[in-house]
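Residues determine shape. Next comes a sample protein:
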Amino acid sequence: MIGKLLGWLRHRQKPATVPDPLWLSVISALPFLAALSESEQFRLRRLAEGFLAEKEFTAAGELELSDAICVSIAAQGCLPILELGLDYYRGWIGVIVYADEFIIPRSVEDEFGVVHEYQELASGEAWDGGPLLISWRDAQMAGSGYNVVIHEFAHKLDMLNGPANGIPPLPPEMFLSRWQGVLDAAYDDFCARVDAAAGSAQETLFDPYASENPGEFFAVMSEAFFETPTLLHSEYPALYAQFAGFYRQDPASRVFRMAGRQ
């Protein structure tokens, strides 16, 4: 099921305009989008409209898909490519939105060659060359450091040059060795923090799921980069600098600019 607006969008050769009231309601509900400058919001809107025209949204799990849901996902998902361009989301079409968390069948082969099958509860999933899956219930938690939409779209960027391993396609001015070294150091440090927290009542500053592997670390820290940039900058300044180089954005400066307005 699709909203009336989105059905109209996809039957035009050129992206149509998302109505002002709908766009403003989406932006105002998400602090990290409200913090964008006027020119940034304008460019994000154009990217989101182009994204909506290119991709196909499908509802699952008894969700009634609305224009507001699709525009919200498009706006959040296009934030990472604000300075990169829509071509970074090439090679896939589908966005499947579930009402809540969903089950994904998994299989893993152990060291003896035995395949173990199991089911995993997920709030999001990005498939290489395939659709992107999102739990709308989880997507509505955006704004306080947890952002399943940015997380899964970051995986899509990571997959542009192979399996999700925390190394997206870097621009020519960035050095792979530097990125790898900074990422590995931050990842090792965070894993140590997660291990330390496991034996106490304390919690880590970032989602401990980031310790699963470097690919998940990149996705979780991308959430932090856009939602809680000053925290990421404080804890891992070198990693923040690398992310700023890749995404070509400085979200921390937006936080300071917003503070100056108040």
Notes: The radius of gyration is 19 Å. The beta strands are 56-60, 94-98, 102-109, 115-122, 124-126, 132-135. The longest strand covers residues 102-109.
